[in-house]
Amino acid sequence: MTPAARVSAAIEVIDAIERERRPAADALKSWGLAHRFAGSGDRAAIAGLVYDALRRRASSAHLMGAETPRAIVLGMLRRERDHDTDAIAKLCDGARFAPAPLTEDERKHLDVADLSGAPAHVAGDYPEWLDPYFNASFGDERAAEGAALASRAPLDLRVNTLKGERDEAAAMLADLKPDATRWSPWGLRIRLSAEAKSPPIHAEPAFLKGFVEVQDEGSQLAALFSGAKPGEQVLDLCAGAGGKTLALAAMMQSKGQLFATDDDKRRLAPIHDRLKRSGARNAQVRTPKSIGSEIDDLKGHMDLVLIDAPCTGTGAWRRNPDAKWRMRPGALEQRVKEQAEILDRALTFVKPGGRIAYITCSVLDQENGAQVRSFLGRHGGWALVPPVDVAGALGERAFMFSKAARLAPEGILMTPRLTDTDGFFVSLLRHTG
Ligand SMILES: C[S@@+](CC[C@H](N)C(=O)[O-])C[C@H]1O[C@@H](n2cnc3c(N)ncnc32)[C@H](O)[C@@H]1O
């Protein structure tokens, strides 16, 4: 397919997403099935255009003065791909399979490409109803934080120290030119260009042999900040597919006991293969039962309970750009309620002097600082571990990290703009009796 035909296809897919209110991945799949002549390179390039347009949907529409799928894609080419008006006009030449030629009005908007005066939710590309929440979290910085959350994410890998060191894994993946991550001692980062297909990391020997796992640097740091140590009794209460569990197992060097559970057994399913590949020897998966509790015997025995809480996922919008436009206010309320229930349940598993690591991949204070304050209001005998001490887990990098991230009394907030990671919040609470 020509570059112009790919742009036409992206406009068609955005149209299907908007008209049929479908997730982007679904609409792209249907388009691929209906256009079997398109090769994998074409499909990847079209997906790249579609996701970039969704990232910058509000600002692209503002720039073009229109909200049509065509306007959103053209505005994105200007904003995200840095094409000037002439380059866009070349793609839109009206030839067979190419988009129709630019109108005078479109040319004018592309030439001016001005976002000054745009409201924060437009410049920051997030839903308008979230503006008060973004304002509460970021104040005047909210447009810049939103814009960073709308940017493309790199591919981050966590090196499994049960198998080898970071340098060894980097050498195994030399073709992909990974860099060591700035903060995480275990991270490798692969930067992808806009047109590039994601490398098939799951087919790499380094992956198949368990040397690396795919995990955003922010998620790696969230696990690191829990301070899990060899010999401890640790419960990962919302383990899902096991991203944090695997990092905890490596931190514990297979010593002590690590229990992983989740209230949804389907989400937990991939953890078995992942643990096997990792070589971890101290992890037990407790699959939920329909009657009774699978973890009652752990009550009062844990040194650490890690809660990687169900949340709005606002911090992970870089990886899921259409989710932000589908998010509804009811979802925030629901997550806040679930988080409070999980926190209240978690404390029953902690032994005297033990701790809870509360983690979200959200940037909204309701799910983060406010949730922790509310927990402390409901339960006596708990104290916050000062975030500066928590960040101390980074050793010599702790000072710079503490300047980059947002350290509030309740916990540490990372964002793409502050730390160049996904958005994560981590709070460490200690039982004081
Ligand atoms: C953010 S995800 C976990 C991601 C996972 N820890 C990782 O690092 O890959 C949140 C998880 O919480 C689970 N969850 C939701 N409500 C729960 C509850 N009441 N108890 C335990 N797990 C719950 C969800 O099924 C989901 O898998």
UniProtKB/TrEMBL annotation:
- Tell me where in this chain the SAM-dependent MTase RsmB/NOP-type domain is found: 145-432
One Pfam family name from the record?
Methyltr_RsmB-F
- The answer to whether keyword S-adenosyl-L-methionine applies is yes
Q: Name one GO molecular function term.
A: RNA binding
Record-linked InterPro entries: MeTrfase_RsmB-F_NOP2_cat (IPR049560), MeTrfase_RsmB-F_NOP2_dom (IPR001678), RCMT (IPR023267), RsmB-like_ferredoxin (IPR054728), SAM-dependent_MTases_sf (IPR029063)
Q: Where is S-adenosyl-L-methionine bound in this sequence?
A: 262, 308
Which residues of this protein are catalytic? 361 (nucleophile)
Gene3D superfamilies from the UniProt entry: Vaccinia Virus protein VP39 (3.40.50.150)
| Alphabetical keyword list | Methyltransferase, RNA-binding, S-adenosyl-L-methionine, Transferase
Q: Which PANTHER family match?
A: NOP2 YEAST -RELATED NOL1/NOP2/FMU SUN DOMAIN-CONTAINING, RIBOSOMAL RNA SMALL SUBUNIT METHYLTRANSFERASE B-RELATED
What the record says about family reads: Belongs to the class I-like SAM-binding methyltransferase superfamily. RsmB/NOP family.
Q: What is this protein called?
A: RsmB/NOP family class I SAM-dependent RNA methyltransferase
